[in-house]
Amino acid sequence: MKTKQLMAEVLRLPRMSDTMEEGVIAELHIKVGDSVSAGDIIAEVETDKATMEWESFQEGKVLYIGVENGDTVPINALVAIIGQEGEDIQALLSKEANKTTVAEEEDEGPAVETSKEDDTDNTIEFNIEDNESTANNERLKASPLAKKIAEEKGIDLHQIKGSGDEGRITKKDVEEYKPTAVAEIKTKPEEKVQQQIEIPQMVGNESFREEKISQVRKTIAKRLTESKYSAPHFYLTVEVNMNKTITAREEINKQIAPSKISFNDIVIKATASAIRKHLDVNVSWLGDTIRYNEHIHIGMAVATDFGLVVPVIKFADNKSLLHIAEEAKQFAGKARDRKLTPEEMKGNTFSISNLGGFGINEFTAIINPPDSCILAVGGIKKELGYNENKEIVENNIMKLTLSCDHRTVDGAVGAKFLNTLKANLENPLMMLV
User: Fold this and answer.
1) Is 406 annotated in the active site?
2) What are 98-129's pLDDT values in tens digits?
3) Chain centroid to CA 216
4) Which of 21, 266, 337, 362 could pair covalently with 399 via S-S, beta carbons 3.0-4.6 A apart?
5) CB of 133 within 8 A of CB of 119?
6) Cβ distance 58 to 11 under 8 Å?
7) Contacting residues for 75 by C-beta, under 8 A, at least 6 apart
8) 405 beta partners
């Protein structure tokens, strides 16, 4: 009876979301020599939507690993090879290498030959004298390194007295040089006196850091660029008197809510209520068709250290204020911990972006596809105004700006929606009507 012979297999990065084209290996959970069984976690992969665990459907010994933590890997690319211990995988590696070479040649086109000299870094400093002519036809002596430092700092070498042999300017001379400046001081209107004033030499080092672009950031850039340049945006802004909403929130938090209700929670509830009366803003542009959504799913933009994510509060108009508050709180925590699932970030029909908590009074937001509208919510600012009795009072004003896709939403449609939303927030009881 023959024993079944296992062949080495390639572990390729799978497509983990419908829009994923590549992923970042956040953390490998295997190393060469490990035994892998079906269901074991191969790695944590940062996709365009979330960081997800990659489970193995194969089993065997890890014979080779072709990636490291932090690498960006296209889907279907080789990540590892598993098989029997001691199995020869050179033929498999050569086959994969040939695939990569062919793909690169197709992408890059014909190679251009360059000489060896072109590829060599010839930036070599020699400690020799390099003479220049001065205005007085004298010879200026300075080392190449001293010249380089002087050029970077904007220092005129002619102003420096060299401490080296025969007055040669050294690196130390440049670094310790303190220039003087000529300033003009008016003593009388008809005369000027020149005076030497010593000023400190400001010396600093240019510095920067570079980071690989995350999959989340790549997706944000791609989607919002497409949105901004494909959807003709227009903007509508209203001012909302939040006096009554502030009072209502204080009363709710004092007597009813087990956890605090935020202004953002109230805006979400008021927006969903207004959308129900104006479903024409709850539409999606699909290219050949316009989708008129009858359900209301509110995308809630959340800022994180790794970029903007938009979890979705589904059927928001049917949920109570307390329900929305708790769900929003959970989504915000998951977003910061990178625990949101793709399912929790899809299906939006309308989006809200709130920067009021960051001290922003007014801004415009880019539409979040496939929505046709996004509401930009500013902070609450105290302003003097008149009450119903024409008395001067202090009002709490919040500005709302609606970004609309003019292909699907007309100005009058957006304006009517904003007026209803304004009424909801200025008279919270209107949301019950």
Assistant:
1) yes
2) 776 555 545 445 433 434 344 333 333 333 34
3) 7
4) 362
5) no
6) yes
7) 12, 13, 14, 15, 20, 21, 22, 23
8) 233
Pairing, β 298-300 against β 72-74? unpaired
> Which tokens hold the place of 170?
């050294």
How does strand 41-46 pair with strand 60-65? unpaired
Place of tokens 């992969």: 45
Residues 310-366: tens digit of each pLDDT:
999 999 999 999 999 999 999 999 998 889 998 999 999 999 999 999 999 999 999
The amino acid present at 86, given as its one-letter code, is G
**Tokens encoding 323:** 């329900």
- Please give the angle made by the CA atoms of 312, 317 and 321, to the nearest 5 degrees: 85
Matching residue, tokens 């997800």: 52
User: Can you give the length of the chain in residues?
Assistant: 433
Q: Which amino acid is at 265?
A: D
Instruction: Kindly state the DSSP code that residue 84 receives in the 8-state scheme.
Output: S
Return d(Cα 216, Cα 222) in angstroms, integer.
10
Given 29, 295, 323, 406, the catalytic residue: 406
Q: Beta-strand (E) ranges in 38-83?
A: 41-46, 51-55, 60-65, 72-74, 78-83
